[in-house]
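Throughout this chapter, every protein is written as a compact record of paired, labelled lines. The reader may check this reading against the record printed directly beneath this paragraph:
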Amino acid sequence: MQGQLVRYDGGHKRYPFYPILEANCLLIPFCPEAAAGLGVPRPPMDLRVQKNGAILAVSQADDSHPVDRLVREASQTFAANHTDLVAYIHMNRSPSCARGDAKVYEDHQQLPGRYDGLFTQELDQHLSQPLLSSDFETLLSPSRLLVFVAKVLRKHFTDSPLPPGTELIGSLQKISDGVGPSPKDFRITSELSALGLQIPKECKTAFLRDLQQEWENGEPWTY
């Protein structure tokens, strides 16, 4: 999401509104496959059902390569070093980072059902508190990004006083709970400014344009 060249094909998947997340939240970019030492670029890996019924990550180039163990160990180390995480943004359909839409194969056929990637599994297993989560594709929607940020801030400050100037938390909390004004009631630039949301100038024009279009099209303010 940050734009680092860590994908299996040597590329990246830059999130267009990453500066907004970065301005409003403390982010910890992490690629479990790169952290596992699999290299960039690297052969893709699949989640495959084994003869004993277990689902393991297997390299497309070498079935004997211990990619499953290496990715799980890197994920466990990350979880042990970040016990205070509040939320996680996962990558759709990734064998490492997906939640609910990872692809699993048996005899070269994709299985139906909901499956998590290896990293997601390890976070769930090793962190004591469940994380808020969203995915890359959902957060391409500006309104859903706003609600996600509101929920992250609300969870982070649940047991501590709200810092001065964070009107965003209370205002967006009401909206995300369905008790605040609808998006149609907002005058976008002035209201977002009043809420305290920081929108860096490098993506402000595109973000406000897309947000305005969503609201004019009657997109539901849900998450």
Q: What stands out?
A: Strands lie at 45-49, 55-59, 87-90, 104-106, 109-110, 132-135. Confidence is low (pLDDT under 50) at residues 162-169. The chain has eight helices and six strands.
